[in-house]
Structure formats: C-alpha cells, structure tokens
Amino acid sequence: MNNLIFCLLALCYAACVPLAADAQKTGKAEPEENQIKQELPISGFGLKPPDSKQKDSKKQSKAIASDNKVLASLREIFQALEKYYPSLTNELAENSQKRDKLIKAFAQSLNAGLKIESKVKADKKSGKEKSDGTEEKKRKNCFNIVNIASNKLSYIRIDRFEKGVFEDLQSDCAMVSNIAKQPVGIIIDLRNCSGSDDKTALDSARLFCKSKSIPLAPGGQQIKRAFALPVAMLVAAQTEGAAEIFVYCLAKARQAIAIGKPTAGKPFKMEEIELKSIDKMLLVPIVPKYLSDFVARPIKPSITTKAYPQISYKEISSKIGAEKNDKCLLRAVDLLISLGAIKHHLAR
User: Fold this and answer.
1) Would you say 176 and 183 are in contact if contact means Cβ atoms under 8 Å apart?
2) What is the pTM assigned to this prediction?
3) How far, in Å, are 68, 167, 214, 315 from residue 220 at the CA level?
4) What is the band of 44 on the pLDDT scale with cuts at 50, 70, 90?
C-alpha cells in the first residue's frame, strides 16, 4: 500500500511541477508554479516572465511543503481505509487491474496532461517510436491563402507547424496585405494541424498580432505584423502540438477567437518516467520556460460547434460559395462578416 501512496504523490508532484524544457540536458527537472488553478475563456493560460532565482527558491520550498501535506493526507486516508474498510485495501493490493484503474483515474483528475501507459503505448505517445518520415514528406503543411465569401475574407489552412511553414505563410500574408481592398477578417483552419516546432508556431502567430504579445522562443525573431484584422481559428480534437501553442498565443493576445471543438490537449513533447512499483510509464509534459504558464490540457473554443467534416482545400479554393458546405467554416464566415458590418456602420 505504501507503493501506491508514493505513486499517487509522484503524480501530484508531476502535475504541479512540470518538467522544464532543458531537463534532459541538465538531468534535473526545474520546479514551476502550480498550473492547475488558471481558468480563462479560451485557454486557461497566462503569460508571465520567468521569476528570479529567489522566487524560484521560494516556489521550491512551497512545493516541498505541499508534497509533505499531500503525502500526509494520502497516508491518513489509506490508514483510515485499512482500519475501517480492510476489504477495499486488500482488494487494491491483490487486484492489479483495479489498482491501475485507480492510479490512471487519479492522474486524469489532476487535469495536467499526465498519462499512465504501458511501455509500448508510452513510446508512441512520447514520440519515440521510429518512423521513416514518409507520411510527413507527402503531406502538404501550409496552403496558399485564398479569398472566400465574395472576397470579404481570407482563408488560411495550416496542417503542420514545421520548418519552412512560417516563411511560406509570411510570403502569402505580404501579398494579401498589399491588395487594395482588404478583407474584413481572416480564418485560420487548424482542425487537422499538428507539429512540434514551437518556434515556427510562435513566429507565425506574430503575423497576426503585436509581436510583443507573443513569447519569444530561443532563435525566434521579432516580426512585423502583417494584418490588423480580427481572426477566427477553427479547431478540433486533431488540433495538437505546436498548433495548440499558436491558438493559445493569438487568443491570449485578444486578437483571435477559437471556433469548433476542444483541442487534443497535447501541446508539448512528453518525458517518460518509469513507475517501477506498478510496472508502468508516467508521461509528463516537458514545458519550455517561455511557456511556463501553459497547462497541458485541451483548449476550449469560445464558440462550440460541429468541427467536421472539414472541406477540402481543392474545393474551397476552386468553387465559389464552397464555404457553405462546411458548418464550422460557415460559422466563422458569418461571425467575421457580421463583425465587419458592425464596424463599418459605427465608422459612418
């Protein structure tokens, strides 16, 4: 039973103190501020610069004190169960399936992106499974910008944030921004978007809002804003990785609104930690310092609507009025056109 208690404690600590991005280099995980408390309409994350060493030391002391309280509470609970409900504790000790179910449920309840998996599943989810990259090479990542809804809106589709995507997007944005009759809004379709290139996602976000509003990743650059227009982002369960960072940044800058279904809740790479007591692997998000307040949980869109089916790029780029065949896209079209009409009326 002690192994079970310490396993639950480890999960609490992992949820409150996510691994820093440089943990693999130093061999140590740096404590960060508790990330479970924050709740915002779009994402539940804040942007704050890293604290000083003195504040970090205080945080670490608080984390240790919190660990002691959690451990004491768990011990008291299980001691009470052993005394008054021995049949339950005996069953947990003897039935590995129920014990595993309890630990998984506990990890999930922390709502911090933690996963308990077998070794094989853990390798897949942490990105360690081998791949020849054939699928990624065949896949189109960033599509040319097209104007839709009688040229009132610009539609951008990104399916993966990786090297080269920002340059393509920047080039297209520069071309559209020089058109005499500007669109009243921009729709960015991320319903099938993934990738793990945080820098590309952050640089791309700067094209749609003030550069200082976006965290600066190592090697990142201050970029001139391409548009000062309202943005609607289409999101869904397949929106994950760097795409979630992109969504968060624009929403946090109050320059965009998300429409669709909650995202995957997998913005970061995962570190594997072996739980020897239960012969499982704990997957913990590796949170970069410049995104230290980003909690690895699904991003809830401000407007919830059916996200799929997603219209093909071929159809949206070649057929006039094709946006009517995509309910999620049509919702964004109606919203931005209505907003544009209101702005025009008030400006008269």
Assistant:
1) yes
2) 0.73
3) 40, 13, 10, 35
4) very low
pLDDT at 139: 53
- 236, 307 in Cβ contact below 8 A? yes
Q: Which residues of 282-302 are buried (b: 16+ CB within 10 A; e: fewer)?
A: bbbbbbbebbbbbbbbbbbbb
User: Rounded to an integer, what distance in angstroms lies between the CA atom of residue 324 and that of residue 333?
Assistant: 9
Structure tokens, 320: 């006039």
- Domain residue spans in the chain? 2-127+269-286, 139-268+309-347
Topology adopted by domain 139-268+309-347: 2-enoyl-CoA Hydratase; Chain A, domain 1 (3.90.226)
Q: What is the DSSP annotation of 239-304?
A: --THHHHHHHHHHHTTSEEEEES---S--S-EEEEEETTTTEEEEEEEE-GGGTT--SSPPPPSEE
DSSP assignments along 45-67, one per residue: ----PPPPHHHHHHHHHHHHHHH
Q: Where are the alpha helices (H) located in 45-192, listed in sequence order?
A: 53-84, 86-94, 96-109, 119-125, 134-138, 165-177
The sign of the dihedral angle between the CA atoms of 250, 251, 254, 257 is positive
Average pLDDT of span 85-107:
80
- Measured torsion, CA atoms of residues 22, 254, 179, 225, in degrees rounded to the nearest 10: -40
Residue 121 scores a pLDDT above 90: no
Q: Are 19 and 271 in contact (CB under 8 A)?
A: yes
d(Cα 104, Cα 120) in Å, to the nearest integer?
A: 16
Residue 140 clears pLDDT 70, i.e. is over it:
no
